[in-house]
Amino acid sequence: MEQKRSGIKRPCRICKKWFSPDPRLGDRQKTCGTPACQRQWHIRKCAEWNLKNRFVARESYLRGRLELLAPVSHSPSSPPPNPVSPPPLNPIPKRVSPLDYPPKVVQEVIGAQQLVIIEYIVRLLVRRVQEVIKPQLPGIQADFGLLPPDQIIRGDGLGSAGGVSFYPDA
Question: Looking at the 3D structure of the chain, how many domains does it have?
Fold first, then answer.
């Protein structure tokens, strides 16, 4: 039988203070046991897990949002809804959308669940484009600084930044 290592100290992975591990945990204990260190270790481990399993987290997020909007099934004992009046639309959960549209109108046309899926796909596309553009930004800024001021158009239709106007009467 293997002997237990008792009395051997080790540094905490968070605060770097030396501690004696609990004999019940042995080599599995990584922090000194203070709540702050345990919380930090938990946050680190969760972040690692989320990076390794990002598809699981995305799937559970999307599934949860869709379940919020799932049509409610009526039990046999309850009376069916009035067929004359249209059923109320499931409200879209309050969330800032990357799309600039009237969500109520789109929800009436395609439904709440389809709208959530479209928003989700747009968010992924925007994130991917930003990931591609971000490394290129220093090069773009460097090239922009090499242009003479009369070549830089302001973008508001009033001419260039160098004082040269594109409008004859200005």
Answer: 1
